[in-house]
Amino acid sequence: LSLAVISCNAFAGGDIDAGKAAVQSHNCASCHGANLNTPIDPSYPKLAGQHADYIVHALTAYKRGGDGPNGRSNAIMGAQAKPLSDKDMQDIAAYIHSLPGSLVVSK
After folding, report:
1. What digits encode the pLDDT tens for the residues 67-89?
2. Region for residue 36 given its phi and psi (left: phi exceeds 0; alpha: psi -120 to 50; beta: otherwise)
3. Dihedral, CA atoms, 44, 48, 54, 56, nearest 10 degrees?
4. In this structure, how many other beta carbons lie within 10 angstroms of the beta carbon of residue 47?
5. For residue 44, what pLDDT is reported?
6. What is the DSSP letter of 105?
7. CB neighbourhood size of 42 (10 A)
8. CA distance 101 to 78
9. For residue 37, what pLDDT is reported?
């Protein structure tokens, strides 16, 4: 059982406390809501509880920008993601994944 816990923590790959600090310093709540589950605009995604690997993928794509391979074009998110290191993205993803959210998984 303890191996499963160690393995699960290693898979997360990020530091939740560092991720929380990064989310606060980047003021993610200004668009995604105080709990990252109540965005200020319905077109903005709910983040709380999202899979960590998806968050890392999305931040990487915003960092690449719309012209890069697998990039995403969004001026706000691009500016937020540009200065992030791979470790920052993993930490942010671990924190976001740890939050209770209202995401629905379809079968």
Report:
1. 767 889 899 999 999 999 999 99
2. left
3. 90
4. 27
5. 92
6. -
7. 6
8. 24
9. 94
What residue has token string 């999305």? Answer: 58
Task: Calculate what percentage of the chain has a pLDDT beyond 90.
Answer: 71
Q: How many CB atoms lie within 10 A of CB 98?
A: 16
Per-residue pLDDT at 10: 41
**Cα distance between residue 20 and residue 73, in whole Å:** 25
Token pair of 95 as six digits: 């924190």
Tell me the C-alpha to C-alpha distance, in Å, between residue 71 and each of 19, 22, 76.
23, 22, 14
Can you give the pLDDT at residue 104? 66
Q: Write the DSSP symbol of residue 40.
A: S
Q: Can you give the pTM of this predicted structure?
A: 0.82
Q: How far is CA 97 from the centre of its chain?
A: 7
Identify which of 52, 101, 53, 59 has the alpha carbon closest to the alpha carbon of residue 83.
59
Q: Which amino acid is at 45?
A: P
DSSP state of 52: H
Q: Report the 10 Å Cβ neighbour count for 92.
A: 29
